[in-house]
Give the backbone structure.
Amino acid sequence: MDFSIKTGLRREATAMVDEHNTAIAMGSGSLPVYATPALAALMEKAAAELVDAELSGEWTSVGTLLNIEHIAATPIGLSVRAEAELTAAEGRKLSFCVTAFDGVEMIGRGTHQRFLVKKENFMQKAVCKTLKNSGQ
């Protein structure tokens, strides 16, 4: 398949900070503020949705690298917006600039990479691990 996903594409994903995505709830800290794992997931979601909108049904992307800074705390009740911008497309490897904001300030920034895979092939390899692990 010819992958012609254009650099410069952008996508946003949003989440409301609530008791389910705080550092306390996710086990990543002891304060009731937006958790770093939740921030990472939201940034990755924006990138994944950007790519999925450009692919046919048999292809998807998987995250392979995420390097982010969580630079400001966000309390319960505020909304978080993550943005992903495709900065490079080298064959099946895609690179993104990711940022996040809470309505008051930037709360996170970094880079993310995804790799394009055929869904069926990817899942076959994953399922083979179950068989190997069970001794079959």
User: Anything to note?
Assistant: The helical segments are 23-26, 36-52, 119-133. The longest strand covers residues 106-118. Residues 36-52 form the longest helix (17 residues). The chain has a mean pLDDT of 95.
